[in-house]
Amino acid sequence: MKSTVTLKRINSLAIPATVAGIAEPLLSITDTAIVGNIPVDGLESLAAAGIVGSFLSMLIWVLGQTRSAISAIISQYLGAGKLEEVKTLPAQAIYLNIALSVLILLSTVFVIREIFELLNASGKILEYCISYYSIRVWGFPLTLFVFAVMGIFRGLQNTYWPMVIAITGAVLNVILDFLLVYGVDGIIAPMYLDGAAWASLIAQSVMAIMALWLLWKKTEISLVLKFPIHPELGRLVIMSLNLFVRALALNTALILAVREATALGDKFIGAHTIAINLWLFSAFFIDGYGAAGNIMGGRLLGEKNYADLWLLAKKIVKYGIYVSLVLMAVSFLFYKPIGRLFSNEELVLNAFYGVFYIIIIGLPINTIAFVLDGVFKGLGEMKYLRNTLLIATFLGFIPVLFLGRYLGWGLAGIWVAFTLWMLIRGGALVLKFRRKFRPLLQNH
């Protein structure tokens, strides 16, 4: 039987998934680039956008894990030819997710100042953080809803409509950023940092409306809540909880990095904001092949087609490495112009250029981790992903982070810790996949 794991099939999923995946970091990058060039308090605005962006990313990643769980279950049922049996599950999962997101939103709104004081924000930066977050946080449930709908489409082996939603949101955000941050003479007064927050919120609202409409028009999945509770909801919740703990560990690393960078001074948090946004952009760019592995891996597991599953893992790692090499070449060639897109402050740029090479060198390591991470999510291996992240964070990242502080490595110490973190994650996934699926391959 001819293999379905072809370059054409992988790219038909990976390329739209890449475009969809970079939408969220692109929103943050747009804010960072535009905010960093604000004529009034640009450095403080850039620092505030970075601190708030990191905190919001943590919230979104922690609760956005339902997307992967929904995608894994739907794709496995699709592969087994039993999709009809799981049609009531998505609505139940989405309503549960939205309820949790609203609960967390309301719980943070009343302690905003305390949250950002814990992240070492103070003075004018703290006030900007509070103002910016007070607007952007209302897009949090909308983003989680969009993520869940994208998970449904992915489970159905469709990455095209998520791409359309993402492109629309990203383009709208860029246009609104320019209009609201800098203003239009005689029409719109400049809103500066608050304008960036409103631009993101409006873009997220439009994306949520599109997601709802496309799900209704393009699938047979209903968002009408029906009972009884689906038997798979328990497995979905356990998967999500494992990913929830994993995301907490992941964001512990991200938040500690922001805290350490903030403690180094304004120019360093500005430089770190640029660096982390570019790191996340490359992560989501590479993650398109991880998404293809997620989507196809779940279906192949449902079919018990272990030969193609093994072939899939090999191919998407290879293609992902190719993409990372292209990103490395572009980064080396456009080293300085990339920095100047975000800030014209020489102190910020010098600090950024001092660590950018570490990010570039780590791209192939990141690729292996991100791509296999996607495959493991599709296979439902959430417990192993959780344990791997806990080990990488608490036995790798955190010790090196504090060692770097003790030895006076500055911002470079933070990015050395990130590189080791990704090396542990990628290595553990390679070992697990070989040990689990090579015997299955040989027995079939």
The chain-level structural class is: mainly alpha
Q: Kindly report the average pLDDT value.
A: 86
**Beta strand %:** under 5%
- Helical content band: over 70%
Tell me the Rg in angstroms: 21 Å
N-to-C order of helices and strands: HHHHHHHHHHHHHHHHHH
Largest sheet: none
Poorly predicted ranges: none
- Give the strand tally: 0
Short description:
With 444 residues, the chain is mainly alpha-helical. 82% of the residues lie in helices and 0% in strands. Keywords: Antiport, Cell membrane, Ion transport, Membrane, Transmembrane, Transmembrane helix, Transport.
Describe this structure in words.
The chain is mainly α and 444 residues long. It has 18 helices and no strands. The protein has helices at 7-21, 23-35, 42-63, 66-79, 89-109, 112-118, 123-136, 140-155, 160-182, 193-218, 233-264, 266-303, 306-333, 335-340, 346-361, 363-378, 382-407, 411-443. The radius of gyration is 21 Å and the shape is globular. The chain starts with 6 loop residues before the first helix and ends with a helix. It is found in: Cell membrane.
